[in-house]
Amino acid sequence: MDVKVPLDVPEKVKETYVNNFKLVTHDKGHLMLFAGDQKIEHLNNDFYGESIHPDDADPEHLLRIASQGKIGVFATQLGLVARYGANYPDIPYLIKLNSKTNLVKTAQKDPFNSELCTVSQVVQFRDMNHLKIAAVGYTIYLGSEFEKEMMWQAQQAIIEAHKNGLLVVLWIYPRGKAVADEKDPHLIAGATGVALCLGSDFVKINAPRKDGKSDSTMLKEITTAAGRTNVVCAGGSSRPPKEFLQELYEQIHIGGTKGNATGRNVHQKSLEEAVRMCNAISAITVEDADVEEAWKIYNGE
Is residue 210 annotated as a catalytic residue, yes or no? Predict the structure, then answer.
């Protein structure tokens, strides 16, 4: 696979950057991001309650899935990796640089997601513990009155990450009082263009909706606007597995996305089922399997 290395990656770490890209995309250029950052983002709502398997109440459930399932990278905060990483040294990690809870609603105040740690601290942690930290992530709420601060922090993070051979995934969600429709396809296309202009390697978006409906053809404007920044869609709340797999297939083959970022549709299941779901998602994302092939994997056939 020919990896297009950005010009802000110094010559001495180009090999590190290429190796990290190949590691998280399994040499295919498509990313299966297993999202575990909701421990801060959604507090315990995503991990305990009706219709959520009891396995998910234990934070280590995330690490068990990431170590046993076929994923590209496991996204979480630095502290969780510090607490569990010694037992799971072979997981490829993405460290989320900023996070906030969902307690303060947009109706109260426009969202601001300030960084919790710096790229330099992540690099120091990586080098000290010899873990497979391949990437960092940062969330921008485009349209918030605080977007300037988030965009500045994201830009600095990208420059510093690339200087150290790390990949960057930007989470970009239009959100705030100035945003009439967070899922508007045209607006999301603008958001992926912002990710490109900041120099991000991947951008994670919510799947677009128009008139209450979601259609993968809406992604075409979005993935085109992103240029050489690869687009992945968030998995969202848990849905029937085959419906999820069908949508993922269409996002890639119709919409032109380069993978997915899935959390709840994986980790809210038992460990055994979650691993099968990971493998089914990976089959579509990385191995170019069709929905029926992935469905067989999910069912353990």
Answer: no
| Two structure tokens written together for 243 | 């419906």
Q: For residue 181, is it within any domain?
A: yes
Residue 48 among the catalytic residues: no
Residue 147's domain is classified under what CATH number? 3.20.20.70
State which residues form the domain around 154. Answer: 11-298
What is the reported pTM?
Answer: 0.97
Q: How many CB atoms lie within 10 A of CB 148?
A: 9
Q: Pairing between strand 133-140 and 73-76? A: unpaired
Catalytic residue among 17, 93, 138, 173: 173
Span 55-94, pLDDT tens digits: 999 999 999 999 999 999 999 999 999 999 999 999 999 9
For 91-120, what is each residue's pLDDT tens digit? 999 999 999 999 999 999 999 999 999 999
Catalytic residue among 70, 88, 138, 204: 204
Residue 183 lies in a domain: yes
Total number of domains constituting the chain: 1
Tokens representing 89 are 């040294």
